[in-house]
Design a protein that fits this description.
The complex is a heterotrimer of chains A (340), B (553) and C (328). Chain B is built from 20 helices and 18 strands. With 553 residues, chain B is α+β, with helices and mostly antiparallel strands. A seven-stranded mixed sheet of chain B has the order 8-9-10-1-11-18-12. A five-stranded mixed sheet of chain B has the order 15-14-16-13-17. In chain B, strands 4-5-7-6 form a four-stranded antiparallel sheet, with helices on one face. In chain B, a hairpin with a 3-residue loop joins β8 and β9. In chain C, α4 runs parallel beside α7 and α7 runs parallel beside α8. Chain C is built from eleven helices and twelve strands. In chain C, β1 and β2 form a beta hairpin. Chain C has two domains: 247 residues, Rossmann fold, CATH 3.40.50; 68 residues. An eight-stranded mixed sheet of chain C has the order 6-7-8-3-9-10-12-11, sandwiched between helices. A four-stranded antiparallel sheet of chain C has the order 2-1-4-5, covered by helices on one side. Classes of the chains: A mainly alpha (340), B alpha+beta (553), C alpha/beta (328). Chains in contact: A-B, A-C.
């Protein structure tokens, strides 16, 4: 099958996946309670009239399947509905457009950290198995996996921003710098596209601590994954063949072992990317990063169905896309894999 | 394993770190601006910036610096109203018709003139918008205007709107005179005109950009754009990130000292403290529970203000046993350890309540006794009410999920009451708002925590909801005292003078004491943090957060 | 006698495992002559492959380690060479063919890439030239459509084709010694015959020495000039192929030959098995390692290690039964 056909087929398959996800999230989210009560909060008590009016205004009294039908109908017209009170009732799609690029930017940079640092560390660890570098890397990986993001974020800020003024405390840009013209919504990329290199460096400086913080767990996971798949690959016969050919150790590892060992690591990275997108709320909170994680938590807190659904569908979309990317990468990494 | 390869890997790792550090160091740091920029940090983004639509302090804390109301107060004292966009006002004998003279030569940020039709536009807009969750409905302003109730109860058709407008509840007398006709006597109308939701918006600005129709609250131009008459002009809003303002150089008073204001959303309190200490934040509104986090801050002072429009109390459902018995209610009132609660939950801040009207308001009277903790007497009362060990009973007390202060209150009460050894068990339930409401309607909850934040600094805004049998809280707990109802409805609003009205409110608050319908425990304090070099801050209860105009370095 | 190409003296290779030290090679002595094919035969685990891997120093540490001995090749002791120099010999002067052709190729590169790689490495040729050479080598090993095979990935080819490619790769730098570690074990019988034919032919055209490791005496008979019989880390008998079948001398060799179903009953009466099991090499039997299973064992067999005794021209045995013969 051709790459193009394969991608088209996978994207068509997305439609039933998204419908399925919308079904699950719709009914699950409608179980968390009455949004009218959540919106009014303290003011709920003694205000049945207001609650009734709000329920009527938002069609909350229709039976759930009918509400779901309305939702699907809107979805078919690319209308994700409107946010709740928490976002001032603007269209969900606008809120997603505002917040998602910020998170995507963090996730991409975080993944960058994880790959650029995690994979070499994993290789180093495997090559020096049971020696000092391996012990150091393994301890670091364990620490990385088990460190609470919340705590890590504050520590990073304290040392790298407050004590030694290397990076800014938080935010995406200083308020004195104008955001670059919006193309992707990711400031670093947009600054590059617009050729504003000053803005690019400022935006990058702002993104480094939060993306490192976000990517650390993935970094640690990739390190461990890379170590174990590298160790496994190094026991394979073809590695012995490569050595018997007289290749240097560096060539044996970087040419023959690495590409084989990358396959499982790539799978993990693909799955982890979805996790970075959906699990950024802590990082976003600590670093005052206006991302989709904070939006989703706020939406859940105010029982804002449309926003919760929009968030879930978007994450699923990107999750599937990142896995598609991984599948395509496979074919390049391993000729035994075929589309289909 | 050859060493060259090992060193190559190390070099890669070092290069990555070096790149990161270079990116950190070589980028141009923005040059410090000489002029004074005020940075405020907030916990959450406003839902929108439309003051007529949002019933939310996160919105008002921004809009109150851009828009102005007709009336404001002299410094912190809400008993001394002064004109802001109005210069003077008068009312007829029964407080139903109010005439305001407006300030001349005031312009909106968009350049259009402020005049009587701006006022009419703003008030009619608020009423006709009829957003069920908005301030005009929620704070009862729509209902106060003549014909407002009819409009709210109608189907909101074009004809209904015309019918409302025909009442001329808000009438332009001349360019600088506007007249309000109310649906009933309301001697405190000028306080309503200080409420941020009634801040005057620019008709020209909204209508020229996105013509606004009645009963449409989903999309208004003012949600993301602002044009008021105030000391600061809106520049931009990046959602959940920052909102930026610049000083209005053409302000009708002296322009503000801060040239620029940036409001940043920084939800994590530790991050705000770091920002203060690094000198990157000037002011932030803080919950009192963040007080300990700020203790070691080198850059910020945590300040407390005791005057709030909030009262905290526990309702006792009087529709069935055991709280239909006044002795039981009194016993529970005397079983709450007010002093310890204030120390534990309020860090020693907050005022005990004399009656139901908080200090700072006209109806506050220090001579009304505070409720006291008296467990011996309480136990005796419960015995008299027939509680004993051989007849075990369970009383359900609930609070809203996540409110740890209230949880502490529940535990304290449970501890005290169960120590009486009279067979009473307190069942503490932590519920979401939705379930709490549901259970409460079915009468399944004997006791529940309540809090009330008033919209206007008026006495009736507390007496009404709490003590009048057919209004919010009293209705919920089934509290009814015919004498109080009569005083409120038939005498309070029509009293000839302020002194006479005060006398009636005292009478009401003294009268309710013997009924023990609630455990009214605190007027909680609120906090804010301000960097050590910011001066000029003053507070009055009608403010939502900071008035940037007052602040200077 | 022809010139010695490679000489192994007293080679001891041990594996340091958690349960103990596996003494895999217990002092191997072996000379490989120029142009000959020498076979190493023995049961699984007797140390044939370890010997081969020790020669090109591919014993992995941990756990394996060459502890004693020397391997002289071209006047140099391979065991004392720096790794960099050893890498220049591997695949160039000494190359190796492995047992499982399916696993011995890297699955993610084409056959041509992998052959060209070794050519580029040792002959310092450009990629294009090396690729041409690789196709030549494939053609040389009798592969039809070598261009297509060169562009194929290992999983796209059959086992026989892969083993031919492996041979092509091993021979691509014209090695002086080709070590073939059970090259046909994983292949079916018809393919096996083709591969063996190929190797026989190659020997005559390239003049390389071959060290052929197998457990199959039939292959030895067909392919080799000389043969060494290994048991538990020792070479117990070394002889020309002819004399080992005619006159197997070591009791283990006798047992081995009798275990082949054959019509020839000169040495043994019936299809026999050797009693007992291969010894545990962590605690190998003292003296002659075969004595616990030997039906002719004497007292001294469990106490001393036998030396080498000559029983015929170029025929040596390590067994006390032949103590009267000339010492090697």
């Amino acid at each position: 099958m051709k790459l193009r056909d394969y991608i088209i087929r996978r994207i068509l398959l997305l439609i039933p996946v998204l419908i399925g996800i919308s079904f699950i999230t719709f009914f699950l989210s409608h179980m968390i309670g009455d949004p009218a009560a959540a919106w009014l909060g303290e003011k709920t008590i003694g205000q049945e009239e207001a609650v009734k009016a709000i329920r009527a205004a938002h069609h909350l009294d229709d039976p759930l399947p009918i509400q779901y039908f309305y939702y699907l109908n809107d979805l078919a017209h690319f209308d994700l509905g409107r946010t709740g009170r928490n976002e001032g009732g603007r269209p969900v799609i606008e809120a997603l457009k505002d917040y998602f690029p910020a998170t995507l930017e963090l996730a991409i940079l975080g993944m960058g950290f994880a790959i650029i640092i995690g994979i070499p560390l994993g290789i180093l660890s495997a090559v020096f198995k049971d020696k000092v570098p391996d012990h150091i890397v393994r301890v670091l990986a364990l620490v990385g996996v088990s460190m609470p993001i919340f705590w890590l974020g504050l520590i990073l800020k304290y040392w790298f921003s407050f004590k030694f003024d290397i990076f800014p405390l938080d935010g995406r840009l200083p308020y004195t710098v104008l955001a670059p013209p919006k193309v992707t919504g990711m400031y670093t990329f947009d600054a590059l596209l617009a050729g504003q290199f000053d803005t690019f460096f400022v935006a990058l400086r702002h993104a480094i601590l939060p993306s490192f913080c976000l990517g650390l767990i993935t970094l640690a996971i990739l390190t461990r994954m890379m170590r174990s798949s590298m160790l496994e690959t190094l026991t394979q016969d073809f590695i012995r063949t490569a050595r018997a050919k007289g290749l240097s150790e560096r060539k044996v590892i970087l040419k023959h072992a690495l590409r084989n060992a990358l396959t499982p690591t790539t799978t993990v990275a693909g799955i982890a990317f979805g996790g970075l997108l959906s699990g950024a709320v802590m990082t976003e909170t600590i670093f005052a990063w206006p991302g989709i994680g904070r939006f989703s938590v706020k939406a859940i807190g105010s029982t804002d169905f449309a926003s919760i659904m929009g968030f879930a569908l978007l994450i699923v979309l990107f999750y599937v896309l990142s896995n598609l990317l991984v599948d395509i990468l496979y074919v390049y990494l391993d000729p035994r894999v075929k589309y289909g | 394993m050859d060493k060259r390869f090992a060193s190559a890997i190390f070099v890669v790792a070092v290069l990555v770190m070096a790149f990161v550090l270079i990116a950190g160091c070589t980028s141009p740091t923005p040059a410090p601006t000489k002029s004074f920029t005020l940075v405020e940090m907030t916990i959450s983004d406003p839902p929108s910036l439309d003051p007529g639509l949002e019933y939310d302090t996160a919105c008002y804390s921004n809009t109150q610096n851009v828009y102005e109301t007709l009336v404001w107060y002299e410094g912190p004292d809400v008993s001394k109203p002064i004109g802001l966009l109005a210069t003077s006002w008068e009312h007829n004998a029964d407080f139903t018709v109010w005439t305001f003279k407006l300030r001349p030569n005031v312009t909106f940020h968009d350049g259009s003139a402020f005049n009587a039709s701006s006022v009419k536009y703003t008030f009619d807009r608020g009423v006709l918008m009829n957003y069920p969750d908005g301030p005009w409905v929620g704070a009862g302003i729509s209902g106060l205007l003549k014909g407002g109730d009819d409009w709210m109860n109608s189907n909101n058709t074009e004809a209904d709107a015309q019918a409302y407008l025909a009442n001329e509840a808000v009438k332009v007398i001349d360019d600088l005179t506007v007249q309000f006709t109310l649906s009933r006597s309301y001697p405190d109308w000028y306080h309503v005109c200080a409420f941020p939701a009634t801040a005057i918006v620019s008709q020209v600005f909204e209508q020229s950009n996105m013509p606004y129709k009645y009963n449409n609250w989903t999309d208004t131009y003012l949600k993301e754009h602002m044009s008021g008459t105030g000391p600061f002009k809106f520049v931009s809003w990046a959602h959940e990130d920052n909102i930026q303002f610049v000083r209005n150089e053409n302000y009708w008073k002296t322009p503000a000292k801060a040239e620029r204001v940036v409001v940043r959303t920084v939800p994590d309190v530790n991050s705000r403290v770091l920002a203060f200490d690094k000198g990157e934040c000037d002011i932030s509104q803080e919950n009192l529970r963040n007080l300990p986090v700020f203790r070691n801050s080198t850059g910020a002072d945590f300040k407390i203000y005791n005057d709030t429009l909030i009262i905290s109390f526990i309702g006792m459902y009087q529709g069935n046993a055991p709280f239909d018995n006044v002795k039981v209610r009194q016993a529970f009132v005397e079983s709450f350890d007010y002093e310890t609660y204030r120390t534990q939950v309020g860090y020693g801040y907050g005022a005990f309540m004399h009656g139901v009207v908080p200090r700072g308001l006209a109806g506050f009277n220090e001579n009304i006794p505070v409720l006291t903790y008296n467990p011996e007497h309480a136990k005796q009362l419960l015995q008299e009410a027939g509680f004993n060990k051989s007849n075990p009973q369970t009383i359900v007390i609930s609070f809203n999920q996540g409110n740890t202060g209230r949880q502490t209150g529940c535990l304290m009460l449970k501890d005290t009451v169960e120590k009486y050894d009279l067979g009473i068990t307190l069942d503490i339930q932590e519920l979401t708002w939705a379930t709490l409401l549901d259970k409460q309607k079915k009468g399944e909850l004997d006791m529940f925590f309540l809090g009330w934040q008033a919209d206007f600094p008026t006495t009736d805004n507390f007496i009404g909801p709490v003590l009048i049998s057919d209004v919010y809280f009293a209705k919920q707990v089934k509290y009814k005292n015919a004498t109080i109802d009569d005083l409120y409805y038939n005498q309070y609003f029509t009293a000839k003078s302020d002194a006479e009205r005060k006398q009636i409110s005292d009478q009401i608050q003294m009268g309710y004491l013997a009924d023990y319908p609630y455990i009214v425990y605190l007027q909680p304090a609120a906090g804010y943090a301000v960097s050590k070099n910011i001066k000029g801050y003053q507070w009055n209860v009608m403010q939502s957060g900071f008035m940037w105009y007052d602040l200077y370095k | 006698m022809a010139d010695v190409l490679l000489s192994i003296k007293g080679l001891k290779t041990n594996f340091y495992t958690y349960t103990g030290v596996v003494k895999a090679l217990d002092g191997i002595d072996l000379d490989i002559y120029k142009g000959e094919t020498i076979g190493l035969v023995g049961e699984t685990g007797c140390g044939k492959s370890v010997t081969a891997l020790s020669i090109i120093r591919l014993i992995q540490w941990p756990p394996g380690k060459i502890d004693e001995g020397s391997i002289t090749f071209d006047g140099k002791d391979l065991l004392k060479l720096p790794l960099r120099d050893m890498q220049k010999i591997r695949g160039n002067n000494i190359s190796m063919i492995f047992q499982e052709p399916m696993n011995a190729f890297n699955p993610v590169y084409t056959i041509g890439d992998q052959i060209a790689e070794v050519i580029m490495l040792h002959q310092k040729k450009k990629k294009k030239e090396a690729w041409q050479d690789a196709i030549e080598m494939l053609k040389f090993t009798g592969i039809p459509a070598p261009e297509r095979v060169a562009k194929s990935y290992p999983h796209e080819l059959s086992g026989g084709m892969l083993q031919r490619s492996m041979i092509a790769m091993a021979l691509s730098c014209k090695p002086k010694l080709l070590i073939a570690d059970e090259p046909t074990t994983a292949l079916d019988v018809t393919i096996e015959a083709q591969i063996l034919d190929l190797m026989k032919g190659l020997k005559t055209t390239t003049g390389a020495s071959i060290l052929l490791i197998t457990h199959d005496l039939g292959i030895i008979a067909e392919m080799c000039d000389r043969v060494g019989v290994m048991y538990a880390g020792n070479i117990v008998e070394l002889a020309d192929v002819g004399s080992i079948y005619k006159k197997p001398s070591h009791p283990y060799t006798v047992g081995l030959i009798c275990a082949i179903p054959t019509l020839d009953t000169k040495h043994c009466n019936r299809l026999a098995t050797i009693p007992g099991n291969v010894p545990n090499l962590i605690y190998p039997p003292p003296g002659c390692r075969f004595h616990p299973r030997c039906n002719k064992a004497m007292d001294r067999c469990s106490k001393e290690k036998p030396g080498w005794y000559k029983v015929g021209e170029g025929h040596y045995v390590s067994c006390f039964l032949y103590e009267g013969g000339d010492k090697k």
